Amino acid sequence: MAGKNKTVFFCNNCGYESSKWMGQCPGCRQWNTFTEEVVARSGKGSSARSARDVETVTLNSVSVEKEDRKTTHIKELDRVLGGGLVAGSLTLVGGDPGIGKSTLLLQVCRNLSSDGIKVLYISGEESVKQIKLRAARIGDFNDNMLLLCENTLSVIEETIKKIKPEVVVIDSIQTMYDEEISSAPGSVSQVREATNVFMQTAKGMNISIFIVGHVTKEGTVAGPRVLEHMVDTVLYFEGENHASYRILRSVKNRFGSTNEIGVFKMEETGLSEVANPSEFMLTGKPKGAPGSIVSCSLEGTRPILIEIQALVCQSNFGIPRRQCTGTDINRVNLLMAVLEKRLGMQLGGCDAYVNIAGGIKIGEPAIDLGIALAVISSFKNKAIDDKIVAVGEIGLSGEIRTVSMIAVRINEVRKLGFDTVIVPKVCMDDLKDIKDIKIIPVSNIQDISSLEL
Ligand code: TYD
Ligand code: MG
């Protein structure tokens, strides 16, 4: 034992390793996330391989068959995965507890098993009875769907080898436990080891494995970020617990594009797909209200219309309050500074609240123009016409800059019955073929203030 075991400190948030405890993690800048773990250095993995045993191949001699993809019959998920589930892939599904990860994966299992695919659902959190109760809400399952309630890694590994399923779900990675590692389940070393084992199983046996990872705020168990780099695909579930819809976002995908999103709604009978998210995001938009405008963001390849709301009012305090949900507060501050400088609006003494309705998070600068217009509208207390949509990035000199895939966005805008769209002038070349919608090109923020909207 002596000399073999060593204690190290891991950041539960990002997996940063350090020989001593630190208050703040240098990797992810989070506080109080370090925990001590004993790392047993066993002889594992030291099988004597040398350069003599391996062979290199020329790239041209490698032949590949067409990628083997299975459909999950959930269109939103298939798209996020890049066109279906790839055989031999390891997919991480992360999200807050209670957001719907187990529910979604159970639905995936049901669809796959009714296609005749052998599926093994391994739960370390719930009993067979609890899973059955949940499954009863989702629908009927056939005998291709197998359950295992277990959290010992070696037992799971053996069971997979014995049963040979085509798809496996591990719910959740934080409950999996390797007996050879002395730290508790959910610690960084346990989570990493378990992921490693599942990765080898997925590649070795050519089966698709889903791993559920809880995002935890307290940092008592290792978060999914610790294993992001090890898996093929990372999907995150977003959404407010109180709202019924959920967004599944791909942040890493070795087999497809990233930042693709799928939109779901949590219902009594599990998650249902939202085929037209724009319509969904705009439900309840007030008519004729100052401070509200619609903009269009591109999520992956998909245009989504969103409502931006702003409330600007005189501050009662020395330092005005600025608050923002759904987009970056620094971006909003920057845009307000541009408005102040370029349009001479007296925003310095104003509180401002900006909100993307529906709780979706947008990082794209293409909604800048929408934010600016919402702020102007609220400041002047004058409503913008309900049929107008604004798209464009704003630069520091107040110039309206180009956005990507403008034609796709405008088609979506037109489809939802809007009749006017404000776009950057520099994009006009791409819009020659667009008909049936009024296009207002703007090149500078000053152009906006001269428009009668
Ligand atoms: P769950 O999938 O257990 O979340 P996670 O695995 O991410 O922790 O989701 C649980 C929530 O979803 C719970 O609050 C109940 C709700 N729910 C429904 O509203 N309808 C349903 O059909 C199911 C199965 C769950
Ligand atoms: Mg769960």
Describe the structure.
The protein has three domains: 7-38; 68-275, Rossmann fold (3-Layer(aba) Sandwich); 280-449, Ribosomal Protein S5, domain 2, CATH 3.30.230. The chain is 24% helix and 27% strand. Helix 7 packs across helix 8 (368-380). It has ten helices and 23 strands. The N and C termini lie far apart (76 Å). The chain has 453 residues and is an alpha/beta fold. The strands form six sheets. It has a nine-stranded mixed β-sheet with strand order 8-7-9-10-6-11-12-13-14. Strands 15-16-18-17 form a four-stranded mixed β-sheet. Strands 2-1-3 form a three-stranded antiparallel β-sheet, with no helix packed on it. It has helices at 75-80, 101-114, 128-138, 153-163, 188-205, 277-282, 329-343, 368-380, 406-415, 445-450, and strands at 5-11, 17-18, 34-40, 69-70, 85-86, 90-95, 119-123, 145-149, 167-171, 208-214, 233-238, 245-253, 261-267, 270-273, 292-299, 302-314, 322-325, 350-356, 388-390, 393-394, 400-401, 420-424, 438-442. The chain binds thymidine-5'-diphosphate (TYD) and magnesium ion. Magnesium ion binds at residues 101-102, 125, 171.
